Amino acid sequence: MAVSFYRSVRSQAKTVVLSSGLGGHAQYWQAQITHLQQQFHVLTYDQTGVLPESEILPDGYNLPMMADELRQILEEQKITQCHFIGHALGGFIGLELARQVPQLVEKLVVVNAWDRLDAHTNRCFATRLTLLRQAGVAAYVQAQALFLYPPTWISTHDLQLCQQEQQAIAHFAPLENVEKRLAALRQYQPEQTAREVSHPVLVIANQDDFLAPWQRGLALSRLIPHADFELYPTGGHASSVTQADWFNSCVLQYLCS
Protein backbone atom coordinates (compact mmCIF):
# COMPACT_ATOMS: atom_id res chain seq x y z
CA MET A 1 0.00 0.00 0.00
CA ALA A 2 1.62 3.25 -1.18
CA VAL A 3 1.43 6.18 1.25
CA SER A 4 2.50 9.75 0.49
CA PHE A 5 2.90 12.51 3.07
CA TYR A 6 3.08 16.11 1.85
CA ARG A 7 4.31 18.53 4.49
CA SER A 8 2.95 22.02 4.85
CA VAL A 9 5.25 25.01 5.21
CA ARG A 10 3.54 25.40 8.57
CA SER A 11 5.47 22.92 10.73
CA GLN A 12 2.75 22.73 13.39
CA ALA A 13 -0.04 22.20 10.87
CA LYS A 14 -2.69 19.56 11.37
CA THR A 15 -2.93 16.62 8.96
CA VAL A 16 -5.64 16.06 6.36
CA VAL A 17 -6.17 12.51 5.08
CA LEU A 18 -7.58 12.07 1.55
CA SER A 19 -9.37 8.81 0.73
CA SER A 20 -10.51 7.97 -2.80
CA GLY A 21 -13.65 6.30 -4.05
CA LEU A 22 -14.10 2.92 -5.71
CA GLY A 23 -10.91 3.21 -7.79
CA GLY A 24 -8.94 3.65 -4.58
CA HIS A 25 -5.92 5.43 -6.08
CA ALA A 26 -4.19 8.34 -4.36
CA GLN A 27 -3.66 10.14 -7.67
CA TYR A 28 -7.36 11.08 -7.70
CA TRP A 29 -6.51 13.98 -5.34
CA GLN A 30 -3.79 15.70 -7.39
CA ALA A 31 -5.88 18.88 -7.74
CA GLN A 32 -6.22 19.20 -3.95
CA ILE A 33 -2.76 18.54 -2.54
CA THR A 34 -1.01 21.87 -3.22
CA HIS A 35 -4.05 23.88 -2.19
CA LEU A 36 -4.47 22.03 1.11
CA GLN A 37 -0.74 22.29 1.86
CA GLN A 38 -1.26 26.00 2.44
CA GLN A 39 -2.76 25.10 5.81
CA PHE A 40 -2.24 21.37 6.42
CA HIS A 41 0.05 18.41 6.07
CA VAL A 42 -1.60 16.08 3.54
CA LEU A 43 -1.62 12.28 3.53
CA THR A 44 -2.77 10.27 0.52
CA TYR A 45 -2.71 6.51 0.05
CA ASP A 46 -3.54 3.77 -2.42
CA GLN A 47 -6.15 1.57 -0.83
CA THR A 48 -5.44 -2.10 -0.31
CA GLY A 49 -5.85 -4.28 -3.40
CA VAL A 50 -5.94 -1.58 -6.10
CA LEU A 51 -2.44 -1.98 -7.57
CA PRO A 52 -1.58 -4.52 -10.30
CA GLU A 53 0.76 -6.43 -7.96
CA SER A 54 -1.76 -6.52 -5.09
CA GLU A 55 -2.51 -9.76 -3.29
CA ILE A 56 -6.05 -11.07 -3.61
CA LEU A 57 -8.37 -9.58 -1.00
CA PRO A 58 -9.97 -11.97 1.51
CA ASP A 59 -13.50 -13.26 1.14
CA GLY A 60 -15.99 -11.08 2.98
CA TYR A 61 -13.86 -7.97 2.50
CA ASN A 62 -15.82 -4.95 3.76
CA LEU A 63 -15.80 -1.25 4.65
CA PRO A 64 -14.90 -1.70 8.34
CA MET A 65 -11.81 -3.62 7.20
CA MET A 66 -10.89 -0.73 4.89
CA ALA A 67 -11.20 1.69 7.82
CA ASP A 68 -9.01 -0.52 9.98
CA GLU A 69 -6.36 -0.57 7.25
CA LEU A 70 -6.32 3.23 7.29
CA ARG A 71 -6.11 3.21 11.09
CA GLN A 72 -2.97 1.11 10.82
CA ILE A 73 -1.47 3.55 8.31
CA LEU A 74 -2.10 6.49 10.64
CA GLU A 75 -0.60 4.55 13.52
CA GLU A 76 2.53 3.79 11.48
CA GLN A 77 2.77 7.48 10.52
CA LYS A 78 2.36 8.45 14.21
CA ILE A 79 -0.69 10.58 13.41
CA THR A 80 -2.87 10.81 16.50
CA GLN A 81 -5.58 13.08 15.06
CA CYS A 82 -6.51 14.25 11.57
CA HIS A 83 -9.12 15.87 9.41
CA PHE A 84 -10.54 13.58 6.74
CA ILE A 85 -11.83 14.06 3.18
CA GLY A 86 -13.36 11.07 1.41
CA HIS A 87 -15.02 10.60 -1.96
CA ALA A 88 -18.00 8.16 -2.04
CA LEU A 89 -16.51 4.86 -0.78
CA GLY A 90 -13.69 6.91 0.72
CA GLY A 91 -16.23 8.93 2.67
CA PHE A 92 -17.63 5.75 4.16
CA ILE A 93 -14.11 4.76 5.21
CA GLY A 94 -13.93 8.06 7.08
CA LEU A 95 -17.26 7.54 8.81
CA GLU A 96 -16.21 4.03 9.83
CA LEU A 97 -12.87 5.31 11.10
CA ALA A 98 -14.64 7.97 13.17
CA ARG A 99 -16.95 5.32 14.60
CA GLN A 100 -14.15 2.86 15.39
CA VAL A 101 -11.61 5.35 16.78
CA PRO A 102 -13.45 8.62 17.52
CA GLN A 103 -10.42 10.40 18.96
CA LEU A 104 -8.47 9.90 15.72
CA VAL A 105 -10.72 12.16 13.62
CA GLU A 106 -11.53 15.86 14.10
CA LYS A 107 -13.62 16.97 11.10
CA LEU A 108 -14.84 14.99 8.10
CA VAL A 109 -15.80 15.95 4.55
CA VAL A 110 -17.86 13.31 2.73
CA VAL A 111 -18.31 13.81 -1.02
CA ASN A 112 -21.13 12.39 -3.17
CA ALA A 113 -22.00 9.55 -0.84
CA TRP A 114 -25.41 8.22 0.21
CA ASP A 115 -27.52 7.07 3.15
CA ARG A 116 -28.59 3.92 1.30
CA LEU A 117 -27.76 2.51 -2.07
CA ASP A 118 -30.17 4.05 -4.56
CA ALA A 119 -31.70 1.75 -7.20
CA HIS A 120 -30.20 3.94 -9.90
CA THR A 121 -26.71 3.73 -8.38
CA ASN A 122 -27.07 -0.01 -8.00
CA ARG A 123 -27.95 -0.31 -11.71
CA CYS A 124 -24.83 1.69 -12.57
CA PHE A 125 -22.69 -0.67 -10.52
CA ALA A 126 -24.34 -3.72 -12.06
CA THR A 127 -23.68 -2.33 -15.53
CA ARG A 128 -20.01 -1.71 -14.75
CA LEU A 129 -19.67 -5.22 -13.37
CA THR A 130 -21.22 -6.69 -16.52
CA LEU A 131 -18.84 -4.66 -18.66
CA LEU A 132 -15.88 -5.95 -16.69
CA ARG A 133 -16.96 -9.58 -16.90
CA GLN A 134 -18.22 -9.69 -20.47
CA ALA A 135 -16.39 -6.91 -22.33
CA GLY A 136 -13.16 -6.73 -20.35
CA VAL A 137 -10.96 -4.21 -18.60
CA ALA A 138 -10.78 -1.66 -21.44
CA ALA A 139 -14.57 -1.36 -21.67
CA TYR A 140 -14.84 -1.03 -17.88
CA VAL A 141 -12.24 1.74 -17.75
CA GLN A 142 -13.56 3.63 -20.78
CA ALA A 143 -17.12 3.66 -19.39
CA GLN A 144 -15.96 5.13 -16.09
CA ALA A 145 -15.88 8.72 -17.40
CA LEU A 146 -19.60 8.53 -18.18
CA PHE A 147 -20.38 7.88 -14.53
CA LEU A 148 -17.90 10.38 -13.10
CA TYR A 149 -17.94 13.52 -15.25
CA PRO A 150 -20.51 15.89 -16.81
CA PRO A 151 -20.86 15.66 -20.60
CA THR A 152 -19.45 19.15 -21.25
CA TRP A 153 -16.35 18.38 -19.16
CA ILE A 154 -15.77 15.15 -21.08
CA SER A 155 -16.11 17.04 -24.36
CA THR A 156 -13.34 19.46 -23.45
CA HIS A 157 -11.02 16.92 -21.78
CA ASP A 158 -11.22 14.00 -24.18
CA LEU A 159 -7.49 13.77 -24.91
CA GLN A 160 -6.63 13.95 -21.21
CA LEU A 161 -9.16 11.19 -20.46
CA CYS A 162 -7.83 8.95 -23.24
CA GLN A 163 -4.33 9.23 -21.80
CA GLN A 164 -5.57 8.49 -18.29
CA GLU A 165 -7.55 5.51 -19.53
CA GLN A 166 -4.52 3.98 -21.23
CA GLN A 167 -2.61 4.28 -17.96
CA ALA A 168 -5.50 2.78 -16.00
CA ILE A 169 -5.80 -0.18 -18.38
CA ALA A 170 -2.07 -0.83 -18.23
CA HIS A 171 -2.04 -0.74 -14.42
CA PHE A 172 -5.38 -2.40 -13.63
CA ALA A 173 -5.85 -4.23 -10.34
CA PRO A 174 -6.56 -7.97 -10.16
CA LEU A 175 -10.12 -8.49 -11.41
CA GLU A 176 -11.08 -10.42 -8.29
CA ASN A 177 -10.10 -7.44 -6.14
CA VAL A 178 -12.18 -5.04 -8.23
CA GLU A 179 -15.20 -7.29 -7.80
CA LYS A 180 -14.66 -7.69 -4.05
CA ARG A 181 -14.31 -3.95 -3.52
CA LEU A 182 -17.44 -3.26 -5.54
CA ALA A 183 -19.32 -5.94 -3.59
CA ALA A 184 -18.19 -4.35 -0.31
CA LEU A 185 -19.50 -0.96 -1.43
CA ARG A 186 -22.83 -2.34 -2.65
CA GLN A 187 -23.36 -4.26 0.59
CA TYR A 188 -22.46 -1.39 2.88
CA GLN A 189 -25.32 0.25 4.80
CA PRO A 190 -24.25 3.69 6.05
CA GLU A 191 -27.36 4.57 8.06
CA GLN A 192 -26.34 3.20 11.46
CA THR A 193 -22.75 4.37 11.23
CA ALA A 194 -23.93 7.87 10.29
CA ARG A 195 -26.11 8.07 13.40
CA GLU A 196 -23.17 7.07 15.62
CA VAL A 197 -20.74 9.69 14.33
CA SER A 198 -20.77 12.75 16.58
CA HIS A 199 -18.00 14.62 14.73
CA PRO A 200 -18.56 17.74 12.61
CA VAL A 201 -19.20 16.51 9.06
CA LEU A 202 -19.61 18.40 5.80
CA VAL A 203 -21.57 16.41 3.21
CA ILE A 204 -21.02 17.65 -0.35
CA ALA A 205 -23.30 16.71 -3.25
CA ASN A 206 -23.66 17.78 -6.88
CA GLN A 207 -26.98 18.21 -8.64
CA ASP A 208 -25.70 16.69 -11.87
CA ASP A 209 -24.07 13.65 -10.25
CA PHE A 210 -25.09 10.85 -12.63
CA LEU A 211 -23.96 8.01 -10.36
CA ALA A 212 -25.33 9.02 -6.96
CA PRO A 213 -28.50 11.17 -6.78
CA TRP A 214 -27.83 14.25 -4.68
CA GLN A 215 -30.96 13.59 -2.60
CA ARG A 216 -29.20 10.57 -1.08
CA GLY A 217 -26.40 12.84 0.09
CA LEU A 218 -28.93 15.15 1.68
CA ALA A 219 -30.53 12.19 3.41
CA LEU A 220 -27.13 11.08 4.71
CA SER A 221 -26.46 14.53 6.17
CA ARG A 222 -29.77 14.40 8.04
CA LEU A 223 -28.72 11.20 9.79
CA ILE A 224 -25.48 12.66 11.11
CA PRO A 225 -26.05 14.64 14.34
CA HIS A 226 -23.61 17.48 13.50
CA ALA A 227 -23.59 17.66 9.71
CA ASP A 228 -23.69 20.52 7.24
CA PHE A 229 -24.83 20.01 3.66
CA GLU A 230 -23.40 21.74 0.58
CA LEU A 231 -25.12 21.29 -2.80
CA TYR A 232 -23.33 22.51 -5.92
CA PRO A 233 -25.19 22.70 -9.25
CA THR A 234 -22.51 21.12 -11.42
CA GLY A 235 -19.40 18.97 -11.25
CA GLY A 236 -20.79 15.45 -11.65
CA HIS A 237 -19.71 12.62 -9.37
CA ALA A 238 -16.06 13.74 -9.40
CA SER A 239 -16.45 17.44 -8.62
CA SER A 240 -13.07 17.57 -6.87
CA VAL A 241 -11.65 17.08 -10.39
CA THR A 242 -14.12 18.98 -12.57
CA GLN A 243 -14.73 21.91 -10.18
CA ALA A 244 -11.43 21.85 -8.31
CA ASP A 245 -11.27 25.58 -7.48
CA TRP A 246 -14.73 25.60 -5.94
CA PHE A 247 -14.15 22.29 -4.18
CA ASN A 248 -10.80 23.33 -2.72
CA SER A 249 -12.16 26.62 -1.41
CA CYS A 250 -15.19 24.91 0.06
CA VAL A 251 -13.30 22.25 2.01
CA LEU A 252 -10.52 24.57 3.12
CA GLN A 253 -13.03 27.06 4.50
CA TYR A 254 -14.82 24.27 6.36
CA LEU A 255 -11.72 22.67 7.85
CA CYS A 256 -10.30 26.03 8.95
CA SER A 257 -13.49 27.35 10.52
CATH level 4 superfamily: Alpha/Beta hydrolase fold, catalytic domain
CATH topology: Rossmann fold
Looking at the overall shape, the CATH architecture is: 3-Layer(aba) Sandwich
Average pLDDT figure: 97
Helix percent reads 40-55%
Number of strands: 7
| Helix-strand string | EEHEHEHEHHHHHHEHEHH
| CATH class term | Alpha Beta
Strand order of the largest sheet: 1-3-2-4-5-6-7
Shape: globular
Termini separation comes to 32 Å
For the largest beta-sheet, the strand count, sense and barrel status come to: 7 strands, mixed
Radius of gyration: 17 Å
Number of domains: 1
Catalytic activity: carbamate + 2 H(+) = NH4(+) + CO2
Function: Involved in pyrimidine catabolism. May facilitate the hydrolysis of carbamate, a reaction that can also occur spontaneously.
InterPro entries: AB_hydrolase_1 (IPR000073), AB_hydrolase_fold (IPR029058), AB_hydrolase_sf (IPR050266), Pyrimidine_utilisation_RutD (IPR019913)
Enzyme class: hydrolase
